[in-house]
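For reference, the entry.
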Amino acid sequence: MAVLTAWRIPLLTAFLILPVWTLDSAISSTATQRPPYTEARPGESVSFSCSVSVLDLDGLYVRRKFTQEGDVLFVNKDGILTVKPGYTDRLITTGKLEDVKVTFKALTEGDSGVYVCEYIALDMDTASMKKHETSGTLLLVRGERLQQQQQPCDKDEALKLTPTLMLITAMSAGSVLLLCVMGFIIWQWPRLKKFFAKQRSQSRRQNDTVYEDMRKH
């Protein structure tokens, strides 16, 4: 129980922080997805909604990222679904293409991951497909054993760190530290700028003094 709880916290932290440092130009301010985070148990269903403020769409991709990356489904402008193997009979969509609700049924623990909507539309000026990508939804499917909240767990087992957990924890800690360092530098930048300018000014005055002394002798 504690092992899985410890795993979920750094993964959620990494999901919230990493977009700041891995900002993708494809992520569009015109496309939104909600909720950003959802949980479920095996066998249950979850839904997330995607919308975009762009007309004349040519289709919508739902893609899985970071873990087992790949396409999940594609909806063309006529509303026809193409569902990828492994998700057949488990995905349905409702609503219009520009404001669609995606429902994921019969979930398993292996479905945990980040799911991102990506709209595509033909740009008539460049004759190329323009992408409008959302920030995604983090889905965590919890095992049935998590329901037994009051059962004690083995201390050694609870403290065990798998290589994956160690990597995620290190990435989360490193991202937070880097964010703090950059924030401190930005906050102190005016003072640092004045300090270095003062140092350069003093250095020039010292050099001028030495030069004048040499000329006198």
Remarks:
- Residues 64 and 115 are 5 Å apart (CA to CA).
- The longest helix spans residues 163-216.
- The first strand starts at residue 31 and ends at 34.
